[in-house]
Every structure is written in C-alpha cells, then in structure tokens.
Backbone:
C-alpha cells in the first residue's frame, strides 16, 4: 500500500513500487489523503481540477492493476491529529497491507510532513488489538519511504527495487496526470522521475530502479551470526 498526501506523489514516487509488487503476483493499493486539487493552474477551477486528479488516479491505478482510495482532506490543509490517523488506521485494517510506502519526513511540504506522521500513528493504531475500531487489528510488517524531490532532506536510500518490467507501464500511468509533463507548473515531473529511475538503476545494477529508505526501526537486525 502506498500512502501519499497527493495523488501525484502516489503515482510518481510510489507507483512503480506498487506496479512491481502487482507484477510479481502481489497486489497494490494507493491511498491518497487528498485530491491535490490546489495545484490547479489559473485557468481551471479548483473543484474541476480535483475531479481531473480523481479521474487520472482511477485510470492510472486501473492500468497498473491496483486499486485507489482517496480521502477527502483539503489539499494544503491535511491535518495531523487522532481523527486523520484513525481514518488511515481503518483503511489499513480494511486493506491489510504487508508493506507500506509513504513520504519521508524531510520535506518542505507540510502535507507531506503530516502524511508521514499520520502513517506512523496509523500503523501503530492498526496494530493495537485493544484499540476498538470496526475491523480487527492488522500488523504492517515493513515500512519504506519514497524518493521524492520535495522530501529530499536527509533521504538516505538503502533498498533498490528493479522496476524494468514495469517502467513503461508506470510512465504511461503517470501520463494521465495533467501535471506530469509540466502542463500545470514549472516542474518537469516526467523528466525528473523518468531519469531518476535511470540514475537509481545505474547505482544498483538494474536498467531502471526505485530507491527506498527503510524505517529506522526495521534496520535493527537481531542475528547470532552475520
Ligand atoms: Zn505532494
């Protein structure tokens, strides 16, 4: 399960990972906390842009063979509190992911920072059997952080995932978004994330790769020999 503040982050920074898991026989779901509607360009009303983002996300996840869930928090105002953490906890208990990928905390974007914090608490709540919700508890076994140009402060990848089998499909899925080719702003997402996959591939010996950072807790290994 990928959990992103905005659908674009979900597809561009976590979509290839979802696609690879699906391609390897697993399943993948993208949970976005907002529609990312406030990224609307001047000539498109915010509400209409939000619906364009929803349609793009549905099409993209259908192409990748996964599902999408979008919560209704307002873009730029995603709150970090018990309500939002429990809402994400409920989705985790419902979807039962083994692995979660989300934003790294070293971000200049407050929605991304809040998403990072929400996911931490949501995983804790989802696992807490004595916390009564509609569904029984569920334990997420691994948590990774995605390689995002907006979340780059102290991002130190330690895991490289070969995405060659899904690279073209993932690029096509990203292209459903108006922002992908820089149509709505200055940033050329397609050039950045397309070539980032090449660069990460160079470092890991794959043609294309995604770099992930493990949560610090899962870096502690208990071994009797190495
Ligand atoms: Zn974002």
Residues:
């Amino acid at each position: 399960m990928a959990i992103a503040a905005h659908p674009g982050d979900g597809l561009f920074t976590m979509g290839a990972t979802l696609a690879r898991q699906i391609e390897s026989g697993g399943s993948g779901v993208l949970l976005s906390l907002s529609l990312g509607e406030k990224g609307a360009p001047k000539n498109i009303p915010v509400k209409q842009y939000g619906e364009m983002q929803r349609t793009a996300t549905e099409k993209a996840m259908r192409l990748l063979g996964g599902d999408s869930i979008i919560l209704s928090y307002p873009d730029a105002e995603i709150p970090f509190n018990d309500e939002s953490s429990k809402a994400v906890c409920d989705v985790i208990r419902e979807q039962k992911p083994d692995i979660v990928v989300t934003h790294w905390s070293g971000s200049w974007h407050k929605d991304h920072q809040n998403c990072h914090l929400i996911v931490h608490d949501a995983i804790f709540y989802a696992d807490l059997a004595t916390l009564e919700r509609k569904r029984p508890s569920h334990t997420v076994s691994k948590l990774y952080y995605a390689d995002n140009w907006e979340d780059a402060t102290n991002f130190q990848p330690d895991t490289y995932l070969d995405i060659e089998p899904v690279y073209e499909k993932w690029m096509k899925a990203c292209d459903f978004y108006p922002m992908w080719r820089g149509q709505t702003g200055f940033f050329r997402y397609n050039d950045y994330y397309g070539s980032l996959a090449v660069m990460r591939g160079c470092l890991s010996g794959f043609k294309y790769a995604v770099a992930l950072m493990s949560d610090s807790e899962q870096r502690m290994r208990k071994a009797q020999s190495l």
In short: The mean pLDDT is 96. Helices lie at 7-23, 46-64, 82-95, 110-127, 167-174, 189-204. The pocket of zinc ion is lined by residues 5-6, 9, 109, 112 (CB under 6 Å).
